[in-house]
Specification:
- The longest helix has 8 residues.
- This protein is globular.
- The protein has one domain: Jelly Rolls, CATH 2.60.120.10.
- With 181 residues, the protein is mainly beta.
C-alpha cells in the first residue's frame, strides 16, 4: 500500500498493492492496522455504502455536519469517475479549495476524505460502481451540500454541463458562500 498526499491537508490518495496474473487479480482493499500504521489515522469505519451510476451522473457535493460529520474512504469497483473533495474546515490553510482525481476499477486507487470536507463524483464511463466506507453513521438531519457548479469553487467536472445528470435535490443545494459547515 502506498500513501500519497494531496494538495489538501489530510486528504490522501491510497494505492493498494494489486497482484495480477493470468487468472485475474487480487487486492486487499482495506486493512485497518496497515491503514493506521501508514497514515496515522486511527478512525474506525462503521458503515459501507455503494452506488451504481450511468455516464454523466453527478452526485454531490455532500457532507454531514456537527457530531455526524463523516470521514470517507472512497473507491471505484467498476468503471471510472472524477472524484472531488472540498475543504470546508474554516481553520484550514486550504479552506474552500478542492482536489480532484480520476478513480477507476482497474487501478483500485482510493481517496481518503477527512471529516470537514464536502465530497462528490461524476461518472466518466458508461457505468460506475462506487463504494465508500464512513467513520460515522448517516444522519439525515445533519446532511448538507453545496451546488456542484458553484462559481466560487469553479470545479472542472470534465464533462460539459449538458452531459451532466444531476438530481433535483443536488441542483437545489446552496452556493458555497451560503452553505452551513
Amino acid at each position: 500500500m502506498e500513501i500519497l498526499k494531496t494538495t489538501l491537508e489530510g486528504c490522501l490518495i491510497i494505492k493498494p498493492a494489486v497482484f495480477k496474473d493470468e487468472r485475474g487479480l487480487f487486492c486487499e482493499t482495506f486493512r485497518q492496522d496497515r491503514f493506521s500504521e501508514l497514515t496515522g489515522i486511527t478512525t474506525s469505519f462503521v458503515q459501507d455504502n455503494q452506488s451504481q451510476s450511468s455516464f454523466g451522473v453527478l452526485r454531490g457535493l455532500h457532507y454531514q455536519v456537527d457530531d455526524y460529520a463523516q470521514a470517507k474512504l472512497v473507491r471505484v469497483i467498476e468503471g471510472r469517475v472524477l472524484d472531488v473533495a472540498v475543504d470546508l474546515r474554516r481553520d484550514s490553510a486550504t479552506f474552500g479549495q478542492h482536489f480532484s482525481i480520476q478513480l477507476d476499477g482497474e487501478s483500485m486507487t482510493q481517496l481518503y476524505v477527512p471529516k470537514g470536507f464536502a465530497h462528490g463524483f461524476v461518472t466518466l464511463s458508461e457505468r460506475s460502481i462506487f463504494a465508500y466506507k464512513c467513520d460515522n453513521y448517516y444522519h439525515k438531519e445533519s446532511e448538507q451540500g453545496i451546488r456542484f457548479d458553484d462559481a466560487t469553487l469553479n470545479i472542472d467536472w470534465h464533462l460539459s454541463h449538458d452531459k451532466l445528470l444531476v438530481s433535483d435535490k443536488d441542483q437545489s443545494l446552496p452556493a458555497f458562500k451560503n452553505a452551513k459547515y
